[in-house]
Amino acid sequence: MRKRIAIDMDETIVDTLSRHLDWYNREFSQSLCKADLHATKIYDRVLVEHVARVRTYPDDPDFFANIPPYENAISVIKDLNEHYDIYIATAAMEHPASFGAKYTWLVENLPFLSPMNFIFCGSKSILNTDYLIDDSPRHFTHFAGEGILFSAPHNANETGFRRVENWQEVRAMFL
Amino acid sequence: MRKRIAIDMDETIVDTLSRHLDWYNREFSQSLCKADLHATKIYDRVLVEHVARVRTYPDDPDFFANIPPYENAISVIKDLNEHYDIYIATAAMEHPASFGAKYTWLVENLPFLSPMNFIFCGSKSILNTDYLIDDSPRHFTHFAGEGILFSAPHNANETGFRRVENWQEVRAMFL
C-alpha cells in the first residue's frame, strides 16, 4: 500500500500570507512585510483596530481567486502523486465562506488529484495519513503520523519537527 | 483518551432520501417511495431521463435547508458527545455547491459540537477514528476503525458489518 501524505493549503501550497499583506497594506496604507512577521502571526502585528477586519479577508471569495502557489508546489505535488496517495487537508471551518473559492482553486490548480482527496476540516488530528506537511505545528499535536513543518515566518522559532524550507526540500525528502 | 466516533450526515443524521423523493415526485409527478428502493439507490429507480436532474438536487442550497434529522439523532449525538469525541464526516466533495448549506445545518442543529469537528471530505478512508457510522459501506473498505452500518433502503442486503436500524440502537450500542 502506498504511503499517504496530507498537505495543508494555506501558507503551505498557496501564499496566503502575501495576499493578507497586500490587502492589508492597500486598505490601510501600511507597509508591513514578511520580514516584520518573524515568529509572529499577522494578526499580532497589524494595528489592533484592524485585526477584526484582517481576519475577515479569507471570507472574501476573491481572496483565493488566482492566488499564486509557492514556487514548485504544483510540480512537486504532481510528482509526489506518482508515488504516494496525496490528500489536501485545509482547515476551512474557520472560514466557511471560503469553501467554494478553495474548492475551485484546488480543482483548477491540482487537476491531477481527485476532489475525493480534498478534506475541508477543522482539527487535523483525525487524519489517518503517514505524513502531514503543514505550517501550523498545532495540527501535529494529536496527529498519528509524522508532522513535517513547512517554514513560514510565524513558525520560525518552532523546534521539534522535521522542517522544510520550500517545495524543493519536500521533493528531496520524499522522492 | 476518549474514543472517537465519526458520523456521516446524509442518510445517517438527516433524511436526504425523503427529500430526494419529495422533490422528484413533485417535479415529475411520480409516486416513488422508500419501499420501492429496497437494496437499490434512488438514481437506479427514477426514470432514466430524470437521473441527471435528480443528481443535481443536493446542489440546490434549499435541499439542506430545514431538512429534518432522523428521530432521536440529535439527542443521541448530544449524549454520545459526553463520552466520545464526535466528528461529523460528510462526503461533500461530490456536491461542492452544498458546502455552505451543510455547514449551516450542522451549526444550527448540532450547536454542542465545535465546527472544528466537521469534516467535508471525499474518501473517508483518511479518517483516524475508532468508529464510523455511515449508510454507505463503500466508506468502510479502507477505513482503519470499525464501520457501523446505518440502515437505509439501499444497503438492505449488505452483510459483514455491525448494523444499526435507528438512533436508539446507536445509543444502545455506545452508551
Notes on the structure:
- 2 copies of one chain form a homodimer.
- Chain A has 175 residues and is an alpha/beta fold.
- In chain A, 26% of the residues lie in helices and 14% in strands.
- Chain A has 5 helices and 6 strands, in the order βαααβαββββα.
- In chain A, strands 3-2-1-4-5-6 form a 6-stranded parallel sheet.
List the helices and strands and how they pair.
Two copies of one chain form a homodimer.
Chain A: E1 4-7, H1 16-28, H2 51-56, H3 73-80, E2 85-90, H4 99-109, E3 118-120, E4 131-134, E5 146-150, E6 162-164, H5 167-174
Parallel strand pairs in A: 1-2, 1-4, 2-3, 4-5, 5-6
Key attributes of the depicted protein:
homodimer, 14% strand
Distance between the termini of chain A: 17 Å
Query: Mean of residue pLDDT of chain A?
Result: 96
Number of strands of chain A: 6
Number of helices of chain A: 5
Strand content of chain A: 5-15%
Broad shape of chain A: globular
Strand order of the largest sheet of chain A: 3-2-1-4-5-6
What does the oligomeric state look like here?
A: homodimer
How much helicity do the residues of chain A have? Answer: 25-40%
Largest interface: pair, residues per side: A-B, 26 and 26 residues
Catalogue the unreliable spans of chain A: none
C-alpha-based Rg of chain A, rounded: 16 Å
> What is the succession of H and E elements of chain A?
EHHHEHEEEEH
Helix and strand composition category of chain A: alpha/beta
Largest beta-sheet details of chain A? 6 strands, parallel
